[in-house]
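Request: When convenient, would you put together a sequence paired with its structure tokens?
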Amino acid sequence: QVHVVESGGGLVQAGGSLRLSCTASGSFASINAMGWYRQAPGKQRDLVAIISSDGRTPDRRTNYADSVKGRFTISMDNAENTVFLQMNSLKPEDTAVYYCRTVAVILGYEYDYWGQGTQVTVSS
């Protein structure tokens, strides 16, 4: 069983900043990726940012949605299995429920786990 818990959402004015955190806990051998996705009302869930490795080396790479490049930064504390999303220069269009995705390795296989989501609201 793997638990994924997000925190850090809230209400902020346009131009402001928020920092989201997500921690994975439970029984797994390693984590190959942790990332953030968001879903606005009536829209599909889209990738915001993800940090991942190939599972063979400790090197990790990051990918961002074009809409957040230069404003959002994803980082990870490997020892704590925690991923952070620093969101700066927030815009009203960033308003959405933000979900954390964890790709955990259990007995040699990758499994996806999702958190419950945290609301981010940016007022104009």
About this structure: The chain has a mean pLDDT of 94. DSSP finds no helices and eleven strands in the chain. The CA atoms of residues 13 and 35 lie 24 Å apart.
